[in-house]
Fold this sequence. Notes:
There is one protein chain. The chain is α+β, with helices and mostly antiparallel strands. The chain folds into 2 domains: 53 residues, Structural Genomics Hypothetical 15.5 Kd Protein In mrcA-pckA Intergenic Region, Chain A, CATH 3.10.290.10; 159 residues, Pseudouridine synthase. 20% of the residues lie in helices and 27% in strands. A hairpin with a 2-residue loop joins β5 and β6. α1 packs across α2. The longest helix has 9 residues. The mean pLDDT is 93. The structure holds uracil. Uracil (URA) binds next to α5.
Amino acid sequence: MSKPFTDAVVRLDFYISHTLGLSRKEAKMLIGKGHVNVNGELVKKANHSVTREDTIVCQEEELSWPAEKYFVLNKPAGFVCATEDDVHPVVLELIEAHEQKDLRVVGRLDLDTTGLLLLTTDGQWLHRITSPKSQCPKQYRVWTVDDVTDEAMQALQEGVMLNGEHAPTQADAVERVDCDEILLTISEGKYHQVKRMLAATGNRVEKLHRETIASLSIDDLAEGEYRALTDEEIALF
Length: 237
Ligand code: URA
């Protein structure tokens, strides 16, 4: 798969080849032959750096920076959070073919987990959400094999030791819905975090659904459906 066009700074030959659908070699030739101007100056170096603030003209035509894409999907079970997989269908297949180019999955949900999943072409936005520093709250609805005791609710809130970790992991909030159903909010994104937190209380997750990330929800989306984010939603992160 091609490198996503998401970096703030890219090489001129990469920009030209991506924007005009040319090979890197063809783009280099165009640049080398003096057909490309950046901010009114002739540029013949293929490795010249450009950003979306630059005005790039190729053979008299002003080129534009590709618009970034931001989607929210209600992920069904049985789909892998990847762009390619040899065994299972991937979430990208749920997005219309013409929208798929350069899309990346923001974080991961397990194969059997359902619910809110973000996809974007914008690498910086993706990083802001997934970086451990971001502390972005994610709420999960958790159905458990055994009833969740009051002691387990308290342990999840105060911090539990996950297998292989040296410090306790705490939920931001835990709310009981039923004896075997809770709403768990976490801000970290450790591997299998929810399942490991429940395992640390001696229980097991039967079914897991991500309801929200920050104030973003998928109440309007049926399983497998997706939509573009609004400008206000993009600005949340
Ligand atoms: N925690 C998990 O254990 N699995 C997920 O898919 C998401 C969070």
